[in-house]
Amino acid sequence: MELKDKLQSIARKMETLRQRYLALQREKKEQERTIERQELEIAKLEKELNQLKIDNEFLRVARSIPSNPEVIARYKGQVAKMVRDIDRCIKQLNA
Q1: Phi and psi angles of residue 40, each rounded to the nearest 5 degrees, phi first
Q2: Rg (CA), the chain
Q3: Cα–Cα distance, 40 to 48 (Å, whole number)
Q4: Cβ(65)–Cβ(75) below 8 Å
Q5: Predicted TM-score of the model (pTM)
Q6: Would the pLDDT of 76 be above 90?
Q7: Confidence of residue 66 (pLDDT cuts 50, 70, 90)
Q8: Nearest alpha carbon to residue 63 among 75, 80, 77, 50
Q9: Mean pLDDT of the chain
Q10: Using one digit for the tens of pLDDT, what is the confidence trace for 37-53?
Q11: CA 54/CA 7 separation, integer angstroms
């Protein structure tokens, strides 16, 4: 009887361990999904932050521009170049 009891005890412990293992696997998968969602949110927020920085720089430059059309054209070119540079950097970071 003692051997049978030990085997049953071992079987119960194995089942308990199996259940814990399965629960931990489910928890791990859920945490991986959470991490993935958070990484997507971070990427979205970084993109938004970069756009806000560009907008802020544009507004800062726009306020300092005199009404001379030649100067305005030159500043527009500089701003366009900055935007292209930033876009290129973002693409490199995402690659």
Answers
A1: -65, -40
A2: 30
A3: 12
A4: yes
A5: 0.52
A6: no
A7: low
A8: 75
A9: 90
A10: 999 999 999 999 999 99
A11: 70
Overall residue count recorded for the chain in this entry: 95
The predicted model gives 54-62 an average pLDDT of: 86
Output 85 or 21, whichever has higher pLDDT. Answer: 21
Pair of tokens at residue 11: 């079987």
DSSP E strands in the chain: the ranges are none
Q: In 3-state terms, the chain is what percent helix, strand and coil (to 5)? A: 95, 0, 5
Query: At residue 20, what is the residue type?
Result: R
Q: What's the start-to-end Cα distance of the chain, in Å?
A: 66
The string of DSSP letters for 1-28 reads: -HHHHHHHHHHHHHHHHHHHHHHHHHHH
Angle at 71 between CA 66 and CA 75, to 5 degrees: 100
Task: Give the distance between the most distant pair of CA atoms in the chain.
Answer: 102
